[in-house]
């Protein structure tokens, strides 16, 4: 069994022999790290225990005991002519050998492990893609806010210019007296100073916005390029995953076919053994009835 980290809070527990993959989610990255460390400790302890048990004595299993009590193969005698004997041998020769079964098991396990690795990489790429999309949305929101501030400053400057024009028109239409001339001039100077200040602020905001937009455009282009690369890689991984699934289906079909061939061979062997036992019983009865 293997445990693979696919993101900061997600991991995959894979069992290649059972062809099973479990996805595990954690509350924090620390919990994921602790689980992975404990998993490796338990796996190492199990390996040491298995090695110790193997060093302590020879391992015996019910399958080996059953194989030791099987009757050794003996040449079969056909009572219906040589043609039937040839048919039996050709059918039994079609049964898969142990090497073929081992090859099928190996292909199946390798395909399962490869599928787990590709799936883990796919989830990691998907997480990175989500992060890049979030950064792009934040950059767009910041640019929109800067544009709104610039529009507000422009509107304020335009309003002040209109006010200055109105005051100038009033001053030109009604010539003030000597005592009243100082107050409008001071007000006009204050308004002109405010207009200049607003113009400077607008120019500063323009410069900041231009720099920000250039940086945002560069970052947006880089992000879009990364997203395209990730989409291309995701497509490639999906194609490889589909190819692996097809190969797994082919391996499973071959394994089922091999099982069916072995079952037919076993049935034919049982039938031949039954006929052989009947033949022996008939020969024994003939031998007893002979004078």
Descriptive account of the structure:
- With 291 residues, the protein is mainly α.
- Strands 1-2-3 form a 3-stranded antiparallel sheet, with helices on both faces.
Features:
single chain, 3 strands, 291 residues, mainly alpha, 3-stranded antiparallel sheet, 5 helices
List the helices and strands and how they pair.
Blueprint: E1 2-5, E2 10-15, E3 20-25, H1 29-56, H2 62-68, H3 82-93, H4 98-173, H5 182-289
Antiparallel strand pairs: 1-2, 2-3
Helix pairs in contact: 4-5
Topology pattern, helix = H, strand = E: EEEHHHHH
Choose one word for the global shape. Answer: rod-shaped
Beta-strand proportion: 5-15%
Order of strands side by side in the largest beta sheet? 1-2-3
User: The biggest beta sheet, please?
Assistant: 3 strands, antiparallel
Spans of at least 5 consecutive residues whose pLDDT stays below 50 are: 58-96
